[in-house]
């Protein structure tokens, strides 16, 4: 894998939903793979609890995947390119087979709006999944621990990591324009 290659990410949502995301690699290192989406088509804007838009049709996201980690990080933008915040999916470590990746969403998310404080999202979804036996107690515990760790790191200023702050959409667009 190298910059410019495309990957197909099979993103499973228990019990039986799977989406496939096609993204372009902009950086591939052993510790992190940075990808960018094409402008997205969404049925409705993705909003925060207070109604602010996180993503909307025409938005692009920069994704950071950390091989072996139980989360990834998205840098979210509105359609006009305005950065809205960092979004961490708590998920199974991705299985990366060349240009095809597989992972399973573990319901919890951490959202940190631009200039704001981080928050844990979707605890109710995890509880519902546990109640319906879509996820086992051990995996749910692991998901909670990952989310707790990210929130603790955010409190000390250690999350999001430097690589997430460095790979902005503006940087990616500028590098794309100079290279091709």
What does this structure look like?
The protein is α+β, with helices and mostly antiparallel strands and about 180 residues long. It has one domain (about 5-180): FomD-like (FomD barrel-like fold, Beta Barrel), CATH 2.40.380. It has helices at about 125-130, 135-155, 160-165, 170-180, and strands spanning about 5-15, 15-30, 35, 45, 55, 60-65, 70-75, 85-90, 95, 100-115, 120. The chain is globular. The two termini are about 20 Å apart. The relative contact order is 0.15.
Structure in a nutshell:
The protein has 4 helices and 11 strands. The protein has 180 residues and is of the alpha+beta class. It has a single domain, classed as FomD barrel-like fold.
Which helices and strands appear, and what pairs or packs with what?
Layout: E1 6-13, E2 17-28, E3 33-36, E4 46-47, E5 53-55, E6 61-65, E7 71-77, E8 83-91, E9 95-97, E10 100-113, E11 119-121, H1 123-131, H2 137-155, H3 162-166, H4 169-179
Parallel strand pairs: 1-10
Antiparallel strand pairs: 1-2, 2-3, 3-6, 4-5, 6-7, 7-8, 8-10, 9-10, 10-11
List keywords for this structure.
single chain; 180 residues; alpha+beta; FomD barrel-like fold; seven-stranded mixed β-barrel; two-stranded antiparallel ribbon; 39% strand
Q: List low-pLDDT spans.
A: none
- Which structural class should the secondary elements be placed in? alpha+beta
Number of beta strands? 11
Quaternary organisation: single chain
CATH homologous superfamily classification: FomD-like
Q: What is the total number of structural domains?
A: 1
Please describe the biggest sheet, giving its number of strands, its sense, and whether it closes into a barrel.
Answer: 7 strands, mixed, barrel
The span between the termini is 19 Å
Task: Write down the overall geometry.
Answer: globular
CATH architecture descriptor:
Beta Barrel
CATH fold call: FomD barrel-like fold
User: Gyration radius, to the nearest Å?
Assistant: 16 Å
What share of residues are in beta strands? 35-45%
Describe the strand arrangement of the main beta sheet, using strand numbers. 1-2-3-6-7-8-10
CATH top level class name: Mainly Beta
The helix/strand order is: EEEEEEEEEEEHHHH
DSSP helix count?
Answer: 4
- Mean pLDDT across all residues, rounded? 94
């Amino acid at each position: 894998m190298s910059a410019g290659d495309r990957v197909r990410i099979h993103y499973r949502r228990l019990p039986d939903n799977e989406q496939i995301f096609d993204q372009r690699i902009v950086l591939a290192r052993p510790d992190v793979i940075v990808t960018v989406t094409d402008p997205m088509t969404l049925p409705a804007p993705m909003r925060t609890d207070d109604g602010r838009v996180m993503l909307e049709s025409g938005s692009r996201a920069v994704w950071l995947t950390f091989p072996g980690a139980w989360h990834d990080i998205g840098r979210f933008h509105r359609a006009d390119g305005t950065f809205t915040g960092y979004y961490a999916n708590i998920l199974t470590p991705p299985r990366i087979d060349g240009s095809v990746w597989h992972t399973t969403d573990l319901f919890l998310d951490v959202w940190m709006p631009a200039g704001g404080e981080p928050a844990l999202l979707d605890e109710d979804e995890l509880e519902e999944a546990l109640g319906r036996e879509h996820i086992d107690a051990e995996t749910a515990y692991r998901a909670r621990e990952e989310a707790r760790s990210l929130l603790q790191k955010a409190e000390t200023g250690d999350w999001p990591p430097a690589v997430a702050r460095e790979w902005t959409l503006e940087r990616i667009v500028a590098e794309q324009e100079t290279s091709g």
